[in-house]
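Hi everyone, sorry if this is the wrong subforum. Our group has a chain we'd like a structural model of before ordering constructs, and none of us has done structure prediction before. Sequence below.
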Amino acid sequence: MSIAEQRLLSQSVTKSFFQYLLPTLVGMMLMSVNIVIDGIFVGNGVGSVALASVNIAVPVWSIIISISLLIGVGGGTLYSIETGARDASKAKQIFTLSMILVTIVITCIGITGYLTAKPLAFLFGANEETLAYTMDYMQILFLSAPILAWENSLSIFVRNDGGPNIAMAGLVVSALLNIVLNYWMIFILGMEVTGAALASVIATGAGLLIYTIHFFKPGSGLTFIRPQWTKTDILSIGKLGFPNFLAEAGTGVFVMGYNVALSYYAGTTGLAAFSVINYLHTFMFLAFIGIGTSIQPMISFYFGAKKYGSIKHTVTMAEITGLALGVAFLGIGYFGADYLVSIFGVETEGVRNLAMKGIKLFFTGYLFMGINFVYMTYYQSIAYIGPSIGITLFRGFILLIAALLIMPVLFGTTGIWLALPVAEGLVAIFLIVFARKGVQNRPLRSQGY
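Answer:
Right subforum, don't worry. Here is the predicted structure as tokens:
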């Protein structure tokens, strides 16, 4: 019996939920540190132009992570369903196929991105002032894309195989090493933005090595076997992972949309202010992804094992956790805006004031984000992809883009900061009114995968 089977079949839902949630939440928030630390060191050690440049390059992270989530979460979900159905051979086949797909696809993307870095930089919002720094950061990320993707995908499978503590350990090591390397490369070696990018890549590689420990644990179900290239498995992996791909791709749309809107309405001051908020948002956003990542292995396993009451209990606990986290983040933003801006070394009065105002408005979106991620993950985990894709499209694309186009015309920069809260809030209200009752009361059914 695998580690995941031993845990989820013998323990209460509450105990299992916190065994997955706590290390996953800590790990995801530490994962965001790898990006936030870059901002803190770049802002204090290089300057605000370099800080804005790194922020412009953030969509590269989104591209790499979105593909690794597409395959990793899709494969991980199918892996847990097969494990719950007691088909260990099929689960191993899915794991092997997923990791090979990640390697092939990401390598092609990395090479293409490196060769087209300059036009991509302009597409992401760079100008002549920020271009050089942006390209330095982007090219290193593209060259190192397989390492970044392997780390993300393998952490998902380790978590689905009952190893959330090892997944957390890898992220802890990565975050701590990133701090040390950022200081050494930026302040000691004077490598500026290049040093920040290299620090993140090396630290991520160290986390990847930690995950390999799981292969040697008794009861580990992660084993590479001879791959079978079946169209059904490839399509199933892509279908189940597509909501996460869209969610991460939406992060790139979010960054580009805010960069374009603030550049038009507030110029370089707006871009610098948003760079601070976006680094903070990365931290908060990954916390909510952490909730979804925690319940996905549980719901998928329970679904495969036909333990439907356990699924409903899991969803309820995740809802409460998401709301509590949102209230906590809003409080931190409202009462600690001045300190949050200060840690990025922002001294220009205009940038500082705009960023503080933005934090207090922008953070209201966190009240709704937890609900949206819980239900997106719930539908995905039971192989009912349509609603999951719908939630992702509306909160991350349709409503967000509409809000960024309409609200600044009516309210100026205030409307820009409120665009994300409006998009998240509308989707969350719809889910609470129309979806929640059905989820809690209607018998679950598979839509096929």
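For your construct planning: The mean pLDDT is 88. The longest helix spans residues 231-304.
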